[in-house]
Amino acid sequence: MHVDLALFEGDTLLDRGCFTVGADRAVFAFSLFQASHQLVSGSADVVLFGFPKHIDLKKIALDMPVHESLDWETIDLGRYTVAFSCRLEA
User: Fold this and answer.
1) d(C-alpha 60, C-alpha 8), whole Å
2) E strands of 10-79, at which residues?
3) Structure pTM?
4) What is the pLDDT of residues 35-75, one digit of tens each?
5) Of the candidates 15, 14, 18, 28, which has an alpha carbon nearest to the alpha carbon of residue 85?
6) Alpha helices, DSSP H only, in the chain?
7) What number of other Cβ atoms are within 10 A of residue 53's Cβ?
8) Rounded distance between C-alpha atoms, residue 18 and residue 83, angstroms
9) Residue 51 vs residues 15, 30, 67: alpha-carbon distances, Å
10) From CA 88, how far away is CA 56, in angstroms rounded?
11) How many CA atoms lie within 13 A of 30 on its CB side?
Protein backbone atom coordinates (compact mmCIF):
# COMPACT_ATOMS: atom_id res chain seq x y z
CA MET A 1 0.00 0.00 0.00
CA HIS A 2 1.32 3.44 -0.97
CA VAL A 3 0.85 6.15 1.67
CA ASP A 4 1.10 9.92 1.10
CA LEU A 5 1.37 11.51 4.56
CA ALA A 6 1.56 15.13 5.70
CA LEU A 7 1.93 16.90 9.05
CA PHE A 8 0.26 20.28 9.61
CA GLU A 9 0.37 22.80 12.41
CA GLY A 10 -2.94 24.57 11.96
CA ASP A 11 -3.08 25.35 8.24
CA THR A 12 0.72 25.34 7.84
CA LEU A 13 2.26 22.32 6.13
CA LEU A 14 5.28 21.22 8.18
CA ASP A 15 6.31 18.10 6.26
CA ARG A 16 5.07 15.73 3.58
CA GLY A 17 6.31 12.49 2.04
CA CYS A 18 5.33 9.19 0.45
CA PHE A 19 6.26 5.63 1.28
CA THR A 20 5.16 2.13 0.35
CA VAL A 21 4.23 -0.24 3.16
CA GLY A 22 5.26 -3.85 2.63
CA ALA A 23 5.82 -7.08 4.54
CA ASP A 24 9.26 -6.05 5.82
CA ARG A 25 9.61 -3.27 8.42
CA ALA A 26 11.17 -0.17 6.89
CA VAL A 27 11.84 3.43 7.93
CA PHE A 28 11.13 6.49 5.80
CA ALA A 29 12.92 9.72 6.75
CA PHE A 30 10.84 12.87 6.45
CA SER A 31 12.56 16.24 6.93
CA LEU A 32 11.26 16.64 10.51
CA PHE A 33 10.58 13.08 11.70
CA GLN A 34 10.71 9.42 10.69
CA ALA A 35 8.04 6.83 9.90
CA SER A 36 8.50 3.15 10.66
CA HIS A 37 6.06 0.97 8.71
CA GLN A 38 5.13 -2.66 8.02
CA LEU A 39 2.10 -4.66 6.87
CA VAL A 40 0.79 -6.81 9.74
CA SER A 41 -2.38 -8.93 9.54
CA GLY A 42 -4.18 -6.88 6.88
CA SER A 43 -3.25 -3.45 8.19
CA ALA A 44 -0.32 -1.06 8.02
CA ASP A 45 1.47 -0.55 11.32
CA VAL A 46 2.87 2.99 11.01
CA VAL A 47 4.77 4.75 13.80
CA LEU A 48 5.84 8.40 13.48
CA PHE A 49 8.77 9.32 15.77
CA GLY A 50 11.91 11.42 16.12
CA PHE A 51 10.19 14.82 16.13
CA PRO A 52 12.39 17.86 16.87
CA LYS A 53 11.94 19.64 20.22
CA HIS A 54 10.00 22.56 18.73
CA ILE A 55 7.25 20.14 17.63
CA ASP A 56 5.32 19.04 20.71
CA LEU A 57 4.85 15.41 19.60
CA LYS A 58 6.64 12.31 20.88
CA LYS A 59 5.38 9.24 19.02
CA ILE A 60 2.27 8.61 16.93
CA ALA A 61 1.14 5.02 16.32
CA LEU A 62 -1.27 4.49 13.42
CA ASP A 63 -3.03 1.23 12.58
CA MET A 64 -4.25 1.75 9.00
CA PRO A 65 -6.40 -0.94 7.41
CA VAL A 66 -5.23 -1.77 3.90
CA HIS A 67 -7.56 0.32 1.74
CA GLU A 68 -7.86 2.85 -1.06
CA SER A 69 -8.62 6.38 0.20
CA LEU A 70 -11.39 8.29 -1.55
CA ASP A 71 -9.96 11.58 -0.25
CA TRP A 72 -7.43 12.77 2.33
CA GLU A 73 -8.05 11.30 5.78
CA THR A 74 -7.06 13.28 8.88
CA ILE A 75 -6.24 12.71 12.52
CA ASP A 76 -6.51 15.71 14.84
CA LEU A 77 -3.72 15.92 17.42
CA GLY A 78 -4.51 19.22 19.14
CA ARG A 79 -2.67 21.95 17.26
CA TYR A 80 -1.25 19.37 14.83
CA THR A 81 -3.00 17.32 12.16
CA VAL A 82 -1.75 14.20 10.39
CA ALA A 83 -3.29 13.86 6.93
CA PHE A 84 -2.84 10.79 4.75
CA SER A 85 -4.07 9.19 1.57
CA CYS A 86 -3.69 5.47 0.80
CA ARG A 87 -3.47 3.85 -2.61
CA LEU A 88 -3.30 0.15 -3.34
CA GLU A 89 -0.41 -0.95 -5.51
CA ALA A 90 -1.46 -2.60 -8.76
Assistant:
1) 14
2) 12-20, 26-29, 34-40, 43-49, 59-65, 73-77
3) 0.92
4) 999 999 889 999 999 999 999 999 999 999 999 999 999 99
5) 18
6) none
7) 5
8) 12
9) 11, 10, 27
10) 32
11) 23
